[in-house]
Design goal:
- The chain has 3 helices and 37 strands.
- By secondary structure, it is mainly beta.
- It has an 18-stranded parallel sheet, with no helix packed on it. A 4-stranded parallel sheet has the order 24-26-28-30, with helices on one face. Strands 34-33-36-37 form a 4-stranded antiparallel sheet, covered by helices on one side.
- Mean pLDDT is 92; it is low at 1-17.
- Residues 451-517 form the Secretion system C-terminal sorting domain.
Length: 519
């Protein structure tokens, strides 16, 4: 009888123990309590196993869970989110219904997914895994393993996979025999060669920041998005990729790019920091964004790009007149550090930014650009005039420092103070051509008048060989600060602000304008 009771006690204890699942991590258990899964409400390292039944989603985002023990009880679990957690190992072999798993920003070192045949999306990003077995996860559609320590992976059997991302790992080579793959993201590795000829469904290829010396994409006829920047390419042929919409090939050594004649869908082209001496844009009618900074181009033609919105051709020896009259959608344009000697933006009413520093332009008409906001016109050695009479000078922020021959900037109202103008002392804001011409005459009469001291603190003495009729002082934005029609000698400036001032002396024979410094 004693043995019989001992057996019953052991059986009862075993059944009772089997009704509970251990959960040693107090943070994980607190989550289960908060979600009403651990119903005793006590941090005691266990919860009733039956309470895990029917739970299909667990969200551990931003919880410092260090141990996932207890997850095995959730046999109906379909989705687990675990961003910014602290566990290093994970075993999901009992979670057979799992189809969505996200673990990011975690010290995860190892993971068991060999039994998770229903897995459709898997994101394990910014962790520490160096190996992973996904050969059994043949239903995967999305797989992202960015920013880990991987150098090899077997994906040969993942025929349902549509998107594969292995960014920022340690791959030097990779085999991807997946003809149904739509998106491949391999940037920031050390890949020196890759065969993508079998990826006939590929629409997106990001393989920038690797060590490729050549890239054959002639068989990827559905390719829409390609980024192969920061490699070692010397040539690129995309003539077969007629569906291409986005192409970035910057920071290579490319001296020849073949766009072919069929890129009717290309909207964005970036090929800065290469060795291009020419590029043909005659067959890209939908082009909206173009960047070709720091190449060897000596000419460029945008006339066949009526939808162009943004163009930057900075640091090129382009020696041409830049005709943008066929680009009415243009929003921003930059051609700094070039030999461009003229530009026509009179048909670009949407233009709000233009930069043409260090060019060979002598004059530029911006009067037909009513929404213009930023004008960067510095260090143009032969620039003489800018026409900004666009009816909306209050929007304008202009800098022309270093353009020492820039004599006149035509504005809507030189005395209004509208806009922000950072200009040299030799540059004047004027209302019209007559005022600009008068400046030349006034400069020729400068010996008629002497003013001293200069700099001046409060009292300015004026000596003139001709009778003075009026003295007017302006700041460098053309705002009138003082006007005297009598008592010309001396002029009291004590109440005027410090800085560079223009003093206009009117005589019976004309005007003289001189600059003084008010201290």
């Amino acid at each position: 009888m004693k043995k019989y009771y001992s057996y019953l006690f052991f059986l009862y204890a075993t059944i009772a123990f089997s009704q509970y699942t251990l959960v040693p991590d107090p943070v994980f258990e607190q989550y289960l309590i908060d979600e009403g899964i651990d119903t005793d409400g006590i941090i005691n390292g266990q919860f009733l196993t039956s309470n895990a039944q029917g739970v299909i989603f667990i969200d551990l985002d931003n919880l410092p869970v260090t141990d996932l023990t207890g997850i095995e009880a959730f046999e109906q679990l379909e989705r687990l989110d675990a961003r910014n957690t602290n566990f290093e190992t994970a075993d999901f072999s009992q979670n057979l219904q799992l189809d969505q798993l996200t673990i990011t920003n975690s010290p995860l070192l190892s993971i068991n997914l060999t039994q998770n045949l229903n897995l459709i999306t898997l994101f394990i990003d910014n962790c520490n895994i160096s190996t992973i077995d996904v050969t059994q996860n043949t239903n995967l559609v999305q797989l992202s393993l960015d920013s880990n320590n991987l150098s090899t992976i077997d994906v040969a059997g993942l025929h349902s996979l549509n998107s594969l991302s292995l960014e920022n790992n340690h791959f030097t080579t990779i085999d991807i025999p997946l003809p149904n793959l739509g998106g491949l993201f391999l940037q920031e590795n050390q890949i020196s060669s890759i065969d993508v000829s079998g990826l006939t469904s590929l629409a997106t290829l990001y393989i920038h920041e690797n060590q490729l010396t050549q890239l054959d994409i002639s068989n990827n006829l559905g390719l829409k998005f390609l980024n192969c920047a920061d490699n070692l390419l010397t040539a690129l042929d995309v003539s077969n990729n007629t569906q291409l919409e986005y192409l970035v090939c910057s920071s290579n050594s490319i001296n020849n790019i073949n766009l072919g004649s069929g890129l009717q869908n290309l909207e964005s082209l970036g090929c800065s920091y290469n060795s291009l001496s020419n590029i043909d844009l005659s067959n890209v009618p939908k082009l909206k964004t173009f960047g070709v900074v720091d190449n060897n181009l000596d000419s460029i033609d945008f006339t066949a790009c009526p939808l162009l919105e943004r163009a930057f051709i900075i640091d090129n020896p382009i020696d041409t007149f830049l005709d943008l009259t066929q680009n009415p959608a243009l929003l921003t344009v930059g051609f700094e550090n070039t030999l461009v000697y003229g530009i026509d933006v009179t048909q670009c009413p949407l233009l709000y930014y233009i930069a043409f520093s260090n060019s060979q332009i002598t004059t530029i008409d911006l009067s037909n650009n009513p929404v213009l906001e930023d004008v960067w016109a510095r260090d143009n050695s032969i620039l003489q005039s800018i026409d900004l009479r666009n009816g909306n000078n209050s929007l304008i922020d202009l800098s022309s420092i270093g353009s020492l021959n820039l004599k006149c900037i035509y504005v809507d109202d030189a005395s209004s103070g509208d806009g922000e103008f950072n200009i040299d002392p030799t540059t004047h804001l004027v209302n019209n051509e007559a005022e600009c011409e008068a400046l030349g005459l006034e400069e020729n009469r400068i010996d008629i008048v002497k003013m001293y001291p200069n700099p001046v603190i409060d009292i300015l003495t004026i000596e003139s060989l001709e009778p003075i009729t009026k003295v007017t002082c302006y700041d460098m934005l053309g705002r009138k600060l003082l006007e005297e029609s009598q008592n010309f000698n001396p002029i009291y400036l004590a109440n005027l602000p410090s800085g560079l001032l223009l003093v206009e002396i009117e005589t019976e024979q004309g005007k003289v304008i001189q600059k003084i410094v008010k201290e």
